[in-house]
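Discussion board: Methods & Data

I've been asked by a reviewer to show the raw model output for two of the constructs in my manuscript, not just the figures. I'm not sure how much to include, so I'm pasting the format here to get opinions. Each protein appears as its amino acid sequence followed by a line of C-alpha cells. Is this the kind of thing reviewers expect to see in a supplement, or should I convert it first? Here is construct A:
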Amino acid sequence: MKNSVKIKCLEHEDRPREKLLDKGAAALTEVELLAIMIGSGYEEKSAIELAREILSAYGPKLHQISKMEIGEWLQIKGIGEGKAATLMACFELGRRRRLETALNLKRVECSKDAFEFLLPHLGDLRHEEFWVLLLNRGNNVIAVKKISEGGLAYTSVDPKRIFTVALQHHSNSVVLAHNHPSGNLKPSDDDRRITRKLQAVGVELELSVVDHLIISGNVYFSFADEGLL
C-alpha cells in the first residue's frame, strides 16, 4: 500500500477507537472522530487518511461537511451508500441535539439566546430561509416559524405573513432571522431595508421587532447588538 498506514498498524494510543475508549471523545481530533464515523478505508487509504482528505476538500469546518447531500458523499472514493447514510445520520443527530437544547432554553434575554434557538434551523442550510422567533411579554419563546425559503443568495420576505403569524400566536415581540450560506455575515442593503420596514410595521401594530439575526454556520450578526435597530 503506497504512502498509506493502516489504522491497525498504528500505536494503540493513536488508534481513534482505542483513544476514545481510553481518553473519551473530547480527546479526539475532528479527523479522528470523522474516521470513526467512516469506519474503514479502502485499499489505497485508511479511514484516517480518508477523513483528512474529506476535511481538506470539503471543510475545514464541520458545519460545512454537515451540509453535504447524499450525491456529494457518493462522489468520494471509499464512501459508499452505507457510509454515506451513517455520516448523514450522525450529523442529523447533532442537529437535533442542538434543537433539543434550544427548546429547553425557553427565555430569550440577549442575541446569543436567540441565536442558540435559531441555529438548529438555519446553521447548516445551503439556501436562504427567513424565520421568526415569537416571544411573549416576558421574552419567553412561544414558537419559531419559517416564513420563506429561497435560493443561494436571496429569499423573499412578506411582512403580512410575518405579522399574521405573530398575531395568531399572541406574540408581544419578534426576533427576525435569516441565513447567509455564503458565510458573509455583513447585512446587504436589502437586509437593512426590510429590517427598517418590518420594524416600522411592528410599531404600528404595537409588536416590537427586538432583533434581526443573520446566521452563517456557527456565527451570527445581530442588528440590535450593532445598533441598527
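Construct B, same format:
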Amino acid sequence: MDGHFVNNITFGPVLVKAIDKLASVPLDTHLMIAHPDRYIGAFLDAGADILTVHVEASTDPRRDLRAIRARGKKAGLSLNPDTPVSAVEPFLEELDLLLVMSVVPGFGGQSFIDAVLPDVAKAAKLRERLGLTFAIEIDGGINPDTAAQSREAGVDILVAGTAIFKTPDYAAAIAALRGA
C-alpha cells in the first residue's frame, strides 16, 4: 500500500526480500499501489512468486501481466468491490489469479461486502465456460461464515487477516476457516 492508491502505507520490496529468505511457501504479493508497472521488477527481484496488480491502478493491465509472466512468475489482477468483472474480462486468458476484494482496500478489520459474491460467481462461470485455469482469491472480512459463502460462489483461495491475528489461537482460527 502506497498511501496514494489506498490511504494506508505498508511494506515494500525490502520487507518482501526479508520474508523470502525465511519463507518456505510461495509469496503471494498484492500491490495496492498507483503505477504498479514502476515496481513490478523490484517486487519480483525481492522474491514475489505471485504478483497481483489492481485493474483500477494499472494504465495497461495486459503489459503488466505480461511483464510478470515474462519473469516466470504468476500474474494476477485485483478488482475493488465496486469494479465489475467486465473490467478484467479482456485479460482473463493471461491471468493466473483473479483477486476479488470484499472490502475497500487499505485497512484491516472491515466487514465483508457480500455484494461481491455475484461477481465471484460470474468469474467462476467465465473461467469454466472459457476453459481457463486461473485461481479466484478473495480478500477482506473473511471469517468462517464468509469463507463458506465465498467458496460456494467459486473462490479457491481465502485471504484472512483479522480473523486469524485477532484471536489467541491462530491454529484454531485457521482450522475454522478451512472447515467452513
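Answer (T.O., handling editor elsewhere):
This is acceptable in a supplement if you add a one-line summary per construct. For B, something like: The first strand starts at residue 28 and ends at 31.
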